[in-house]
């Protein structure tokens, strides 16, 4: 051992004797294995024909899903590089609502293709330069592939939602949810204002079957009236939304009341009650003003604060349905669904502050009460009522609905769509092969690796459908130059090329755009790592 090596080794020992260091080829090998390992886990989930994964928690809870985002969140990933790739993929879901599985597959495949060149002595920096050139070209190709610019109608939105949902749940349920989700988004859409998906409440009821999931054009609240004599159903109902205390409250400052006789005590109690009784009488007077003596008209009071038993008695005697301690998030939604405005005082409250709904009723399910406020005129807040026979079905539908809502929102914001079924990846791959000839130097090897890596999406789609991957790719490439279909996609039933636009298989533009950006950046960063030092505080202890 020469003196120089001895000095270098001793320096490392002084730095941290317990540090675990992987250098050069070993570091690259660690990253490659991590990305490919994660790819192998998720590849069977891609597309409508993908298989399910069953996750079992430490407590024995079961979750069956094929949503990449859910899997990456729920899996306990120990490897630092795999954890990094998983975080990037879940960030993709947070930003655009879809594309998690595709993200992991493309990152894994970019690294796999790069490994072939690196093992032959090519420096990773040259490959990453080629990746960057290929990324810029892909973004230009994506702009060329935009379809239905400014012509996104309800049918297009349904196709986008259906494409997203069929990769998450079975086809029958996906088709049912598609209509509900598109109608929900269109109901809350206001011209000139940003789309707020929080105005779509998702309420779960463990009841009936998953195909009984429905869209309520109004609000569903998970609590009911607090008095047994209150009406359980009301038609042609006025809705008063308020944040006013209808119960006796202690004073904010410490104070004592002294009395000499029972009569004085009675007066003090009456005085304490009088201001609450006055508020209740104001509500009753308002109800009489708008409803008169018509028994066919109802009145619903939704209060964010409390209502005490005496006040509930008074309201029940006047056939007023009163809900107390309503959730704060529902207060804004109720006024958007029913109209009117939320009031903080009953003084000078006018009938124009009231909302209106065609039907309000209470449903009891086991020990839980639900209040439905339906048949609202032009509701700008609606509820998706998710039903299912058990908890994991409800969770699976809820995750799918979240992705479906984001897909429709993306289509409306982009005002365009991209052909799906692997059409973009095949087209971009072949265009990159042509473009490679225009690039000088060894960076063209990076472009070739990028072109080959993109084909992982149609390959895995074909494999998951039980088709021959190579034959499917060759069929798509052969049909690419034909005059019949400009951007051919893969028909998973026959294995032949078809027109995704005509078949209604559409992807979001911004999901693909985000995918190209994040995959290239992460794959490049992982390839450029030439040393991994595991020398955190935990390994310095002891």
What are the main properties of this structure?
alpha+beta; 6-stranded mixed beta sheet; 3-stranded mixed beta sheet; 19 helices; 17 strands; elongated
Structure description:
50% of the residues lie in helices and 15% in strands. By secondary structure, it is an alpha+beta fold. The protein has a six-stranded mixed beta sheet with strand order 6-11-10-7-8-9, sandwiched between helices. A three-stranded mixed beta sheet has the order 4-12-5. A hairpin with a 5-residue loop joins strand 2 and strand 3. Residues 5-14 and 538-542 have low confidence and may be disordered.
Number of alpha- plus pi-helical segments: 19
Cα end-to-end separation: 30 Å
How are the strands ordered across the major sheet? 6-11-10-7-8-9
Mean pLDDT: 81
The number of distinct β-strands equals 17
Which helices and strands, and how do they pair?
Layout: H1 3-15, E1 20-23, H2 24-42, E2 53-56, E3 62-65, H3 68-74, H4 80-96, H5 100-118, H6 124-144, H7 154-165, H8 171-188, E4 200-206, E5 214-216, E6 219-221, E7 233-242, H9 262-291, E8 298-303, H10 309-317, E9 320-323, H11 328-338, E10 355-365, E11 368-374, E12 382-388, H12 391-414, E13 418-419, H13 423-435, H14 443-454, H15 456-464, H16 469-480, E14 489-490, E15 497-498, H17 500-503, E16 506-507, H18 509-527, E17 531-534, H19 537-540
